[in-house]
Write a structure and sequence with these properties.
The complex is a heterodimer of chains A (about 725) and B (about 300). Chain A is an alpha+beta fold and about 725 residues long. Chain A is built from 27 helices and 13 strands. In chain A, a hairpin with a 4-residue loop joins strand 3 and strand 4. Chain B has a 6-stranded mixed β-sheet with strand order 6-7-8-3-9-10, with helices on both faces. In chain B, strands 2-1-4-5 form a 4-stranded antiparallel β-sheet, with helices on one face. Chain B has a 4-stranded antiparallel β-sheet with strand order 12-13-11-14, sandwiched between helices. Chain B contains 10 helices and 14 strands. Classes of the chains: A alpha+beta (about 725), B alpha/beta (about 300).
Chain lengths: ~725, ~300
C-alpha cells in the first residue's frame, strides 16, 4: 500500500504532464462553453443599457437601437452555435481521454512500457482514471463554478448588471430561451456535467475491456444507445402491457435515469418544454430531478467499478485484439439483437410501419460489427445462427410478456379489503382533479374495483386515459391504466363517468377544494348559450350549485340538455373540468339563468335579443370535419346575413349535440371559438353536410365567403 | 535468483510456454536462445510482470512477480519494440525512468551518455533504430535495477555500438552484480557476452547450462575410416551421441555429443586413421540442438 502511495502520485502527475495538450484543449474548450461565453458576450450588453431603460419606459426604438439589438442577438446566437461545437469537442475529449491515457490497453509497445513499471494494477488504474477525469470533466465543472460565482457576484454587486446578463441569457433569440440566469446556468451545468461525465466513464469502461482504440470508441457510443433502446423497449412493452402507459412523459422517467443519451434526450426534452410553459413553471421543468443525478452518479460508479474489474481480469497479451474481455462483446451483440427485436415487437403492437426496414438495419449493423470484430467471412454462418437463435429467444420472450399480459400481472385486481386507498386519474370524461380522485371509503373502493374488473372482463385496451392506482394496506402500490381512446368505448366511458360522479367524494374533490379565485367557463344549454368569466361571488355560487346537483345525483340522471366546460385557477395551476348539464340540474341552471352574463337566453334569439349581447356579426361558427385530415374541408361560418342564413344556421345548430364527453362524431363545432364541445353525430352528418353545402353555395353565389382569418380575428 | 516452475502460458489455443522450468542464478549473464516463436519474449514479459502465467509459479528472490510493485522496482525490461518511447526525447525518457525507479543513478547515466553521445533534446522518433535501442539501454542501465531484461538488445546496432553496449552490460555485471537476461538471435553476441545460456523450443527448455559446459559437450570431428561407417555403427558406444555424420570421399565429418576423451576413444575403437576434434560455435550448437529437437535444419 505504501508503494502505491509513492508511485500513485508520481504516475498521476506524469500522466497529466504527458497529456498536457489534451488538458489545455479541454480547458480552452471549456472557457468557450456556454456560461463563460455568455458572460463574455454580456459585457457588450452594457453598451445598450440605455436602450433597455428606454424600452422599459416605453420609448420608441430607433433604427440604430434596433440594429444594436439585432447585433446582440446575432452575437448570442453565434455564441450558442460555438457552444454546440464546444460541447461536441468536450464530448470527444471525454471519449478520447481514456483511450489516450490508457494507451497500454490498445498499444502493445505501450503495454510493455507501462505494465512493467513498479506500480500496482490498482494504483495504475486509479491514477489513470483520475488523470482522465481531471482532463475531461474537471475543467467543465470548474467552468460552471466560475459561471456560478459570476452570477452570484453580478447579482450581489450590481443588480443592473445582473439584469442585463439575465436579459441576455433569457432572450428568446434563436435557441437560447430559458428563464433566468440561475435556471439557465443550472440546466446547462446539470446536463453538461452529467453527459460529459457519463461519456467519460463509459469510454473508460470500454477502454478497459477492449484491446483496440476503434472498438473502444465505437462501443462507447453505440452501447449506451443500444442499452437505452433495449431498456426503453422493454419498459414500453411491460408498462404498455401491464399498466397501459404509452405517453412519453411517463416513459421518459427510466431513460432519463440512464446517463449519456438518456440524460441528453431528457435534457433536450426539458429544454423544449421550457419554451412552451409559463415562466413560473420553467424552473420546475428545467430542474433535473435529484434521482436523475443520483442515478447518473451510481451508473458512473458502477462503470468505474466494472472498468476496474476488467483491468484486473484483462490479460496484457489481449492488447491489440478487438476485445480484451470477449464476454462483453458477446453480451453487447446479444443486447443489440434483443434491442431490435424489442423495437420490432413494440412497433408491431403499436401497428407502426417500417418493420422490414428495421429488420434490414438490424441485419446490416449486426453483420458489419461481427465482420469488423472477427475480420473473417468464414464465420458468417456462425453469426447468422447466433442472430437467428438470439432473435427467436428474444422474440419469444417479448411475445410471452405481451400475450400473458406481463405473466398475469396486467389483469391483477387487488382484493378490496387489502386496499387502503385508490386514486383514479380520469381526464377525458370531464372529471378532473390534478392530483387524481382519491377514494378511501370502502364503498367507493368497491365501485372503482368494479370498474377495474369491467375493464379486465371486457378486455379493454391499455391506454393512459383511465388510470387506477391502489395503495394497499401493506404499502404496495398497484397501478393500471386502460382505454386508449374513449370515443371508441363510449358506453364504458359514460359508465366510468357516471359511476364516479355518483360518489359525493368526486364532487367534493373536483368542485369543493382549493382556493378557487376565478372561473372562466363556457356553458351551453340546448335552449341557450353563455360564455364568460364569473365573478368571485358567482364562482362560489356556481360551485355550490354543482355540488348540490352532484350530491343529489342530478348530474347523472335525466336528459342531457347541455354541457359546461369550466376553467378555473387554483393557486398557480389552471384546471379544467367538463360536465354534462341534465334537465335535473336545477341548481346549475338556476345560477346560470340568474347571471347577468348568461347572454343568450334562447337560440331563437341567437342574434342578440338582449342589449348586452355582442353584435350579431361577431358570431362565428367553425366546423371541423373529424373524419378527414384535410383541413381544407373544415368550414367556418361567419354569420353576416342573419336574414338570409338564419334558418339554415338555426337548422344546423339544431343538429348539434351537447356533451362534455367525447362522442363518436363526424364534426366538431366551435361557436365563437369557444372550447365548448359541440358535435354533429354520424347520424346527422348527411343532413348537416347538405345544409353546409347550401350555405356555401348561397355565399358563393353572393360572393360573400369569409375566410378563417376573419373568424379568428373576431373570436 | 529467478525460479520458473512448471510455467505454462497459452495465447488462445497455442501454448507459448509449455510446463517450462528454469532457474537463473543471480549475477549471471543469461542468454536466452530459441527459434522464432519459441517463447523467449513471452518468458521475458512474464519475468517483468507484464504477462501472468496460466499455470506454474514464477518467483524472483522468492517473491511472485505479477502485480508486485516492490519487486518490479528491481527489474527493468527493455522490449524489442521501442515505439513507445518515440514521442520522448532522451531527457524525457531519463526523467521517466528517474520517476519510477528509486535506484536510478544520474552518474551512471552521464557516464554512459558520455560514451554514446546521443542527442538529448531530439525526439526518439528522429533517431535511427540502433540509436533508439542505445537510448533505451542506457536508460535501463541507469535505472540500476538488480535485474535487467533485454529482448533482442543488440538488434539494429552497428558493430562498434554493439561492442560499446556489450561493454556497458559487462561493466554493470562486474560493478553492480546486475543479473542480465538477454534474448537474441545473434548467437555470436550471446557467445561473447553470456556465461549461461538456455535454449527454448516450442515453449520448452531444451537445455540451460553454463556456456563452457554447453560448448565443451558438442564437437565437430573430422576423421577417416578404413570402411564406410554410419550413425548406427556408433550406437553401442556409451557416453557419446552422434548428432550428424557426413562422408565425402575418404573423409568423414561428424558432430558428436560427449567429452573429447570419450570421442577419441570411440574413434580409435572404429580404427580411425586420424581424428581432429574442432570446437563448435554456439550457432552450430544451436542448430544441432534444434535439429535434435525436431527442427529440420541442414548444415554443411
Amino acid at each position: 500500500m505504501k508503494l502505491i502511495d509513492r508511485y500513485f502520485s508520481r504516475y498521476f502527475f506524469y500522466k497529466l504532464a504527458k497529456h498536457k495538450v489534451l488538458l489545455i484543449v479541454s480547458l480552452v474548450a471549456n472557457i468557450l462553453s456556454l456560461p463563460l461565453m455568455a458572460i463574455i458576450t454580456s459585457s457588450s450588453v452594457e453598451g445598450i443599457y440605455n436602450v433597455k431603460t428606454n424600452l422599459t419606459e416605453g420609448a420608441v426604438i430607433s433604427y440604430e437601437t434596433r440594429k444594436v439589438l439585432e447585433g446582440l442577438a446575432d452575437s448570442v446566437e453565434n455564441a450558442f452555435i460555438i457552444c454546440i461545437f464546444v460541447f461536441a469537442a468536450l464530448t470527444i475529449i471525454s471519449l478520447a481521454a481514456p483511450t489516450l491515457i490508457m494507451s497500454y490497453n490498445n498499444k502493445r509497445s505501450d503495454s510493455d512500457m507501462y505494465l512493467s513499471l513498479p506500480i500496482s494494477t490498482k494504483g495504475r488504474f486509479l491514477a489513470d482514471s483520475l488523470a482522465g477525469f481531471v482532463i475531461a470533466v474537471l475543467p467543465l465543472a470548474i467552468n460552471f463554478l466560475g459561471g456560478f460565482i459570476f452570477i452570484q457576484n453580478a447579482a450581489g454587486i450590481s443588480s443592473e448588471h445582473y439584469e442585463l446578463f439575465n436579459t441576455l441569457i433569457t432572450s428568446d433569440i434563436g435557441h437560447i430561451c430559458v428563464c433566468n440566469a440561475y435556471d439557465t446556468f443550472f440546466f446547462a451545468a446539470t446536463t453538461g456535467i452529467i453527459t460529459v461525465t457519463a461519456v467519460y466513464f463509459t469510454s473508460l469502461f470500454f477502454t478497459c475491456c477492449t484491446g483496440r482504440r476503434a472498438e473502444s470508441i465505437i462501443y462507447s457510443l453505440a452501447t449506451p444507445l443500444i442499452a437505452l433502446l433495449t431498456i426503453n423497449n422493454l419498459v414500453t412493452l411491460i408498462l404498455n402491457t401491464t399498466r397501459g402507459i404509452t405517453s412519453w412523459p411517463e416513459l421518459e422517467n427510466i431513460p432519463a435515469h440512464m446517463p449519456v443519451f438518456g440524460t441528453l434526450f431528457a435534457g433536450m426534452g426539458r429544454f423544449t418544454k421550457a419554451r412552451t410553459v409559463s415562466s413560473e413553471m420553467v424552473p420546475e421543468v428545467l430542474a433535473f430531478p435529484v434521482s436523475v443525478i443520483i442515478s447518473a452518479i451510481i451508473i458512473c460508479l458502477l462503470l468505474l467499478f466494472a472498468a476496474y474489474i476488467c483491468t484486473k481480469k484483462r490479460k496484457a497479451e489481449n492488447t491489440g485484439k478487438p476485445f480484451a474481455i470477449e464476454l462483453i462483446y458477446k453480451v453487447i451483440m446479444t443486447l443489440l439483437v434483443v434491442c431490435f427485436v424489442g423495437l420490432l415487437v413494440v412497433s408491431f403492437r403499436k401497428k407502426q410501419s417500417g418493420l422490414a426496414v428495421s429488420i434490414l438495419v438490424l441485419f446490416a449493423i449486426y453483420m458489419a460489427l461481427q465482420l469488423f470484430h472477427y475480420k473473417s467471412i468464414k464465420k458468417i454462418p456462425m453469426h447468422l445462427l447466433h442472430l437467428v437463435l438470439t432473435s427467436a429467444i428474444a422474440f419469444g420472450g417479448f411475445t410471452l410478456i405481451g400475450l400473458s399480459e406481463g405473466f398475469g400481472y396486467g389483469n391483477y385486481i387487488p382484493d378490496i379489503d387489502a386496499v387502503q386507498s385508490v386514486t383514479v386519474d380520469e381526464s377525458y370524461t370531464g372529471i378532473y382533479n390534478r392530483d387524481g380522485l382519491i377514494y378511501t371509503d370502502k364503498k367507493d373502493i368497491e365501485m372503482v374495483s368494479q370498474l377495474h374488473k369491467k375493464c379486465v372482463d371486457d378486455n379493454i385496451e391499455t391506454g393512459y386515459q383511465f388510470r387506477i392506482t391502489y395503495k394497499l394496506k401493506n404499502g404496495t402500490v398497484v397501478s393500471r391504466s386502460y382505454i386508449d381512446g374513449l370515443n371508441i368505448h363510449i358506453d364504458l366511458g359514460k359508465e366510468i363517468r357516471n359511476t364516479l360522479l355518483s360518489s359525493p367524494a368526486t364532487i367534493d374533490q373536483v368542485f369543493g377544494g382549493g382556493e378557487i379565485s376565478d372561473v372562466e367557463g363556457s356553458f351551453i344549454l340546448k335552449e341557450g348559450l353563455t360564455a364568460s368569466g364569473l365573478s368571485e361571488e358567482g364562482t362560489k355560487e356556481l360551485m355550490e350549485a354543482i355540488k348540490l346537483d352532484g350530491n343529489a345525483k342530478n348530474l347523472t340522471s335525466g336528459k342531457v340538455i347541455g354541457a359546461a366546460e369550466l376553467f378555473w385557477s387554483d393557486k398557480d395551476i389552471y384546471i379544467n373540468a367538463m360536465i354534462d348539464i341534465t334537465e335535473n340540474c336545477e341548481n346549475i341552471i338556476s345560477v346560470l339563468n340568474n347571471k347577468e352574463n348568461y347572454v343568450y337566453s334562447r337560440f331563437n334569439h341567437f342574434y342578440a335579443s338582449s342589449e348586452k349581447a355582442a353584435e350579431p356579426d361577431s358570431i362565428c361558427m367553425s366546423i371541423e370535419n373529424l373524419t378527414d385530415d384535410d383541413f381544407s374541408t373544415d368550414k367556418n361560418f361567419y354569420i353576416r346575413n342573419k336574414d338570409k342564413e338564419n334558418d339554415k344556421i338555426k337548422a344546423l345548430f339544431e343538429l348539434m349535440e351537447f356533451s362534455s364527453f367525447m362522442l363518436s362524431q363526424s364534426y366538431y363545432v366551435a361557436v365563437n371559438a369557444s372550447p365548448i364541445s359541440m358535435y354533429i353525430s354520424e347520424e346527422n352528418a348527411d343532413e348537416a353536410e347538405s345544409l353546409i353545402k347550401e350555405i356555401e353555395a348561397e355565399r358563393e353565389k353572393n360572393g360573400d365567403k369569409p375566410d378563417f382569418t376573419d373568424c379568428l380575428l373576431f373570436s | 535468483m529467478i525460479k520458473i516452475q512448471n510455467v505454462t502460458k497459452k495465447f488462445g489455443a497455442q501454448k507459448a510456454l509449455d510446463n517450462l522450468t528454469l532457474e537463473i542464478e543471480k549475477g549471471c549473464a543469461y542468454g536466452l536462445l530459441g527459434s522464432n516463436g519459441a517463447g523467449k519474449s513471452t518468458l521475458l514479459r512474464l519475468l517483468s510482470g507484464i504477462y501472468i502465467q496460466d499455470n506454474g509459479r514464477i518467483t524472483i528472490d522468492d517473491e511472485p512477480i505479477y502485480d508486485n510493485p516492490a519487486l518490479k522496482e528491481k527489474i527493468f525490461f527493455v522490449s524489442d519494440d521501442t515505439a513507445q518511447f518515440t514521442g520522448m526525447t532522451l531527457l524525457q525518457m531519463k526523467d521517466f525512468v528517474k520517476t519510477f525507479y528509486k535506484t536510478y543513478n544520474e552518474e551512471v547515466f552521464n557516464s554512459l551518455w558520455e560514451i554514446l553521445k546521443l542527442p538529448l533534446d531530439k525526439k526518439l522518433s528522429d533517431f535511427s533504430k540502433g540509436m533508439r535501442r542505445q537510448a533505451v539501454v542506457i536508460c535501463g542501465l541507469s535505472a540500476c535495477t538488480e535485474y535487467l531484461l533485454l529482448d533482442e538488445a543488440f538488434d539494429g546496432l552497428d558493430p562498434a555500438m554493439r561492442y560499446a553496449v556489450k561493454q556497458m552490460l559487462v561493466d554493470a555485471i562486474i560493478d553492480r552484480g546486475v543479473t542480465v537476461i538477454i534474448s537474441s538471435h545473434n548467437l555470436k553476441e550471446i557467445e561473447e557476452f553470456c556465461d549461461t545460456v538456455g535454449l527454448i523450443h516450442e515453449g520448452k527448455v531444451i537445455f540451460s547450462r553454463e556456456l563452457d559446459s554447453v560448448k565443451g559437450n558438442i564437437h565437430k570431428v573430422q576423421t577417416s575410416f578404413p570402411e564406410e561407417v554410419s550413425k548406427e555403427d556408433f550406437a553401442d558406444i556409451d557416453n557419446i551421441e552422434i548428432l550428424s555424420l557426413k562422408s565425402s570421399g575418404s573423409v568423414t565429418a561428424l558432430v558428436v555429443k560427449g567429452s573429447t576423451e570419450d570421442i577419441e576413444k570411440a574413434m580409435e575403437g572404429k580404427n580411425a586413421r586420424f581424428c581432429d576434434i574442432i570446437p563448435l560455435s554456439l550457432e552450430e550448437i544451436f542448430i544441432y540442438e534444434m535439429k535434435g529437437a525436431g527442427y529440420n535444419y541442414e548444415i554443411d
